[in-house]
Model the fold of this input.
Amino acid sequence: QLQLVESGGGVVQSGGSLTLTCTSSTTIVDVVTMGWYRQAPGKQHELVATIRSTGSINYGDFVKGRFTISRDNTKNSITLHMASLIPEDTGVYYCLRSPYWGQGTQVTVSS
Done:
């Protein structure tokens, strides 16, 4: 049974950085789309970043150059490095291994 293990969430001060990692229990070589979405309190689920098997990357509009997504097929994982975090980045971050979702990891940015 496929499992997605997310790690790296936590509490950070405004302006700080966090790195999220999502590791799949099965190979991701042929997975077209992997990425991260988030849900902030009282808000809709929204795109953070996706990375395709071709290497093509797409970021949510709010990212504005602060986040970097990468993919390592040899480790069956993706990583999201988040910098210059602001309180509005607080939420649950979900890993996508299309069409499967992880359980989510909490990110809290304090002011």
Notes: The CA atoms of residues 24 and 49 lie 17 Å apart. The chain is about 0% helix and 55% strand. The first strand starts at residue 4 and ends at 7.
